[in-house]
Amino acid sequence: MSLLGLELDNGDILLKFVETAAETNGALHAQEARYRPHSNPPPLHCHPSQEERFQIIEGGLEFIVGGETKIVKAGNEIGVGKGVYHKARNPFDEAALVRWETRPALRTGELMRALYTAGKARGGKPPLHEAAAILREYRPEFRLAKPPALVQTLVFGCLAPFGRAALRRT
């Protein structure tokens, strides 16, 4: 199923899917991301099986990639390799427009839709049991830096059944 054209908004970032796994035969997921001024970053995370590229079209973003802070402004881009922990935010007074690509696509569109939908009623953050279900389901696409992997496996494994049940009701 194609998610082309889907728009998601968590209050900090407005996403619009412009190329998805369905259109690219799984090679690429691309989205336009409009970061609002002074946006909050996601938690530090990595994509174990994917690389990302961010092309800044307007404004600028602050990235933390592999422990280093980098400011990337319009006309420039930054890549993030597989398994590299990172996060990004807009610390500036103006919005930033970014083309954000993930290769291979895997289930990036579905992951983003699940996270944004689950977090919609809670200011962008899903309840812990729903986040556990989502993060367990999408392990090849997304992994948190903290808590340690073993703790994530144990805790998310215990909470995921409750989260899946709650997600089915929504």
Which key phrases capture this entry?
six-stranded antiparallel sheet, single chain, 170 residues, 34% strand, alpha+beta, globular, 28% helix, three-stranded antiparallel sheet, Jelly Rolls, 11 strands
Describe this structure in words.
The protein has 4 helices and 11 strands. The protein is of the alpha+beta class and 170 residues long. It folds into 2 domains: 97 residues, Jelly Rolls (Sandwich), CATH 2.60.120.10; 62 residues, no CATH class. The strands form 3 sheets. The protein has a 6-stranded antiparallel beta sheet. Strands 7-6-9 form a 3-stranded antiparallel beta sheet, with no helix packed on it. Helix 3 crosses helix 4. It is globular and about 45 Å long.
